[in-house]
Write a structure and sequence with these properties.
- This protein is mainly alpha-helical.
- The chain has a two-stranded antiparallel ribbon. Strands 2-3 form a two-stranded antiparallel sheet.
- Strand 2 and strand 3 form a beta hairpin.
- It is globular.
- The termini are far apart.
C-alpha cells in the first residue's frame, strides 16, 4: 500500500518578507510619482523618476507600521478615518526620518520651494497625495499581502505534480508534466521635492 505524505499547511509571510514587499512598493511608487510630476510640470517626455535607496527603508518600515494600525483599527473606525490617521503618521514618519538623515547631510528630499512646507522636510501640498496613497496601501497592498502564504513543497512548486491523475508512469512522466505546466502557467495569468543629482 502506497501512502502519500500530507503537505504542511501554508503559513503567512514573515514580518521581514512583508517589509520587503512594502519597501519595493514604496520605492516603485515614488519613482512613478516623481516621473509623472516631472511630466506634468515640465512636460518632460523622458519621465525621469527620482528616489533614493533610503526610500526602501523608510517606506518598508512606515507601511509595516501602517499594517499594524490597520489590524488594530479595521473594526473600530471607517476607512476614511483610518486613512486620515495613516496620513498623519506618514507626515510624522517623513519628518522624523528626514530630520535624522539631515544630521548626516543624507536627506534626499527638500520641500523648501513649496509654500506650505515645514523646515523643508514636509509640506501640506502633499496631504491629498499621501491620503490617496494611504487608501491604496490599505485596500490593495496590505490586505493582499496579509493573504499571501508560504507553501512548503518542491522548489519550483510544480515538478512533483502530474497534468492529470493517469498521466506518466515514472519519474520521466512526472518531470515532463512538471515542465509542461511550468511552460503553460505563465499564459493567461492574471519641482517634486526631490534633489536631483548633478
Amino acid at each position: 500500500m502506497v501512502t502519500m505524505a500530507t503537505p504542511e499547511a501554508p503559513v503567512p509571510l514573515t514580518a521581514l518578507s512583508r517589509w520587503y514587499l512594502y519597501a519595493i512598493h514604496g520605492y516603485f511608487c515614488e519613482v512613478m510619482f516623481t516621473a509623472a510630476w516631472e511630466f506634468v510640470v515640465n512636460c518632460n517626455w523622458k519621465f525621469p523618476g527620482v528616489t533614493s535607496v533610503w526610500a526602501l527603508f523608510i517606506y518598508g518600515t512606515c507601511i509595516l507600521i501602517v499594517e499594524r494600525m490597520y489590524l488594530k483599527l479595521r473594526g473600530r473606525c471607517p476607512v476614511l478615518l483610518r486613512c486620515i490617521i495613516y496620513t498623519l503618521w506618514t507626515y510624522l514618519w517623513e519628518f522624523g526620518t528626514g530630520l535624522l538623515l539631515r544630521q548626516f547631510n543624507a536627506c534626499p528630499w527638500d520641500y523648501s520651494e513649496f509654500r506650505y512646507n515645514f523646515m523643508g522636510l514636509i509640506t501640506a501640498e502633499y496631504a491629498v497625495p499621501w491620503f490617496c496613497a494611504s487608501f491604496i496601501v490599505e485596500r490593495l497592498v496590505i490586505r493582499k499581502t496579509l493573504r499571501l502564504r508560504f507553501h512548503e513543497g518542491p522548489e519550483d512548486g510544480w515538478s512533483n505534480h502530474r497534468l492529470d491523475a493517469g498521466g506518466g508512469g515514472g519519474s520521466g512522466g512526472t518531470l515532463g508534466a512538471g515542465r509542461r505546466r511550468e511552460r503553460n502557467r505563465g499564459v493567461g495569468n492574471d519641482a517634486n521635492g526631490y534633489l536631483k543629482g548633478e
